[in-house]
Design goal:
Radius of gyration: 26 Å
Largest sheet: 5 strands, parallel
Order of helices and strands: HHHEHHEHEHEEEHEEHHEEEHEEHHH
Distance between the termini: 20 Å
Number of domains: 2
Shape: globular
Helix content: 25-40%
Number of helices: 14
Length: about 450
Amino acid sequence: MLRLRSVVLGLRNGGCSNYSSSKNSKSVVPKASKKSKSKSGEEASLAFAVDHDASSGDGARASRLAADESNPSLNVGPNGSPLFTSTPTLSLLSRKDVNSYFQFRREELARVLPEGLPSGLEEEFQESLRSAVLVRQGFLDLRDNFRRIVDPPLYPSPKGPKVRKQIVLDGPRSCGKSIALAMLVHWARDEGWLVLYAPRGREWARGGFFYKNPDTGLFDTPLHAENTLKDFWKWNESKLKQLACQIPDPIPLGEGAGVGLMKGVDSMTMPEGSTLDDLVKTGIDHTQAAVGVLVRLRKELSLVKDIPVLIAIDQYNSWFTFSEYEEPVTLRSCRPIHARELATVSAFRGMMHDDMMVGAFSHSTAVGKLRKDLPDVPVDARVMFPRYSLGEAAAVSHYYLRQRLVSREAFSEENWKKVYYLANGNGAEMRSLVPLMR
């Protein structure tokens, strides 16, 4: 907030004094001159609506946007280019669609991503009043990387980009890593892949019931394990029914959330002919088995060969620092428990394997600065995701104009470039600053 205030003051002092906040509870209407009084009531009403879109309530703005849908001439991007792509699926997007917007249906997003959307994507949808995402070259590169693994080109180019089975997405705060990861998961599921998606990896090391398992020496978090299994099962149920369990070993049981240990039982064996669907349901139905099932599921996913498997973890950096849990050492002291000491995190964190996996850093979680070479992660796995380029910022600014976050009278190339340079390409800050154009 302090930075935003100083930015606005800097704009005003620099000759752009026609910026003001869009969150004022009362709109300031300039006094009409004698000349303006000669306008018809309809023209005056229209002028007022256009001038005050950015500061009007979402209800009034949504009504105007609904009326705009019948006017396709408004869907214009920079230099007259189409603002929205006509490409129907994420799989068919190509370079010609870069810097245009791909529109989702909210009900389809809720169906394909039942685990939930990243907070940045929710905020974007809420502020713009439209479920659309900018097509960025960074996402296409990420998608095509995994596509080439499953479907290698017949004649690979020696000068082509290196294919990575394990990727760590890194980059500045609010550069779009979480959104790119969610779009990747959506694409992979559209392609029929089996995807384990954790959009809130930080929660694996925060909150809920935890205890130290004396058999493993690790800390079990049965409530989080159960929730992860439920999320995984929602979209993948039909595929899990087709995949047989390949590990016959008994599944160790532990304490359940609020119910303790099972009496006289310390392990559970899956019946012969069980599927991965049966395995996941066992962890959901029996809280004492949730952690053991999730750990076993990780091993089973490595053995699946019939369909591609992708593990996608957001807030992945939270697994390389301390959790919020503490272990009592003496009557008056506790030691912090590192995330690697949690059984579920320990099972999924490592990338030194042959499975497809992508983890996205989330710097908004403020876990502290991590070393460059992460343990159990290939040295070349880190891929930097950039903030908006000037071309992307142009498309974003025109999109916000189309969504009436700023009036057409105030919008200009000079103004949106000022916003871009002040925000340094930060997507969230650009979205906050664009309505300040006056």
